[in-house]
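Long-time lurker. I teach an intro course on protein structure, and each term I like to show students one example going from raw sequence to a predicted 3D structure in token notation. This year I'd like something fresh instead of my usual example. Would anyone be willing to generate the tokens for the chain below so I can use it in lecture? Attribution to the forum is fine with me.
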Amino acid sequence: MHLDLFPASADKRDMTRSLQNPQPATASATDDALGALLTLPKPEVADAIIERALAAHWGLTGRMEPLAGERDLNFCLTTDQGGKYLVKLTHPAESLGMTEFQTEALVHVADTDPTIPVPLVIRPADGALWAALPEGRLRVYSWLSGVPMHLTPRSDAQAVASGDALARLTKALAGYSHPAADHVLLWDIRQTPRLMPLLPSIQDPELREEATAFVARFAADIAPRLKDLPWQICHADLNPHNLLVDQGQPDQITGLLDFGDMVWTPRICDMAVAAAYQIDPARPLERLSLFVRAYCAVQPLNASELDLLFDLITARMVTTLSITSWRAARYPENAPYILRNAPAARAGLAAFRAIGADAAARAFHLAAKGA
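-- Reply from a regular --
Happy to contribute to a lecture. Here you go:
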């Protein structure tokens, strides 16, 4: 779910999800290629409308606190009895299929493995998954306790816990299917070749040149190899803004959030996205290896997947820099929020330059074997 519970996580799904043209975008058609939801403003809806709907459909009343999000409207509802809920009003431009895809996935995960701490869908009185309003689809979820991982000291134990949590989620989603799963999402790193029109927005000339060269190499050498890998529906955005941890024991994960970037993609792309946020610049291979080992203990990866992991982690960092740079230039008033993950991506790329692909591949293969 694209929000910050404290506040924290971005609503990236609505930013770049609907790339409907299957051909690579050109610079002259960037807006069209990125999809309408990338450029639409957040809807303006009076709180009173949402409050009336919550009372009518769920019997819930109380105080609503707005939460961060770039396209949907998100709130923490504290009821008159002291209960807490996450309330989301979907952007009216979102398709019915996408709302179904994301909401039904949460139901599937909770039914498949109740130990995975995902938000539970609170159904309205009619038993549906949401209430359809003229302003959008209104959904209510259970409130998960904890603080976003990015607000806590990072540790090796967190990397292990993150790898284990992602692997369990991946296994749970492996049995899920939906017709909307194969949509095109720019944040999905298999779409890296589509980043080319955004690269001029990267301000640092050397970084821009490096990203441009990587995107070209990805299109020529990496993308063709993805078709032979295991594919499934994946979360695709398990970053530290979307992981909640216990405030007193920050190595204990209490929540997995933001299913808005879910997509049908190679399984290893999902793992690479999460791994990109587990890099300790001072000792990148050590912490990454712990993450890989914990993941593979639950969900083994094959040799072809591990061979591509270094490049796919790089792809996530390049994707972050490309999309956020483009959006920051377009929405300068919101640039600090949009660019919050850019420093980590730059640091990660610098660390990867020092490591090199061969050394990383050896480390990942050893970690996958439990070494």
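Some talking points for your students: Confidence is low (pLDDT under 50) at residues 1-33. The chain is about 45% helix and 15% strand.
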